[in-house]
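WARN no homologs supplied; continuing
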Amino acid sequence: MKKNYIYAVTAVLLWATVPALSKWLISGIPNMETLSISSFLAFLFLLLMNTANGTVRKLKHFSLREYLIMAGLGFLGSFLYSALYYYGLARLSSQEACILNYLWPIMLVLFSCPILKEKMSAVKITAMGCCFTGILILSAGGGGGASASAAPGIVSCILAAACYGLFSVLNKKANLDENVSMMMVWLTTSVCSLAAGMASETWIPIRGMQWAGFLWLGILADAAAYLLWALALKGARNVASIANLAYLTPVLSLAVSAVFLKEKIQPRAVGALAFIIGGILFQVFAQRRQEG
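OK structure emitted
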């Protein structure tokens, strides 16, 4: 059990670096170039891992329909999600983008009702109300001009969270092998961002520490963190106790951004975070109480 918590905490620590690192990379490198390179590194890592443990052989047993499902999931939950998130990240501080990104658990609940036929309850409605209060707090600061200029970034991050919430629901419904499926998801993301980048951007050479950033983002924060998280959940007796650790990510991200990007932690960001994470945890604990 202790090993599962080590896996989970390691994954959370790696994910906490993503907003600041992504913000730093896209400040000097075009968005789609950043996404394509980091995604390809994640794909290569998972390909080597699946080859080493033999799960890559499962690829020959998938049908055309299952390949199309994996490609569709990759387009929605990784490429489109990341493209929207990077767009928002370029227009907001990393702490603001990260906080809005953590609306995805509520989006997951919202989409699970029509797709997985789960019931909407008073607890879920209350939790969503708390989260959207957090959005209003985050959107209200900075004065009229600043708010107007930040609006596209805020909308983009909310849409990104919706994409990832929908992806999570559809991925659960598809019920495919996670290791192989995620490998194909990252391949789809790399190909789509390569095509989008070639059509809309002028790519630049990657230099020095930027390669270190890509290796960290692609291999550790994307591929390895996902595997550690999957291992933690798979071996846990109480999944909720592990899953709740994920909500430490935006809190830790604020500290990482403050240290490495010299971003000042804004009071309204802390207030928004309290409402969003509070809403999610309220739903989690209320559900556990009902089940217990």
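The longest helix spans residues 143-174.
OK
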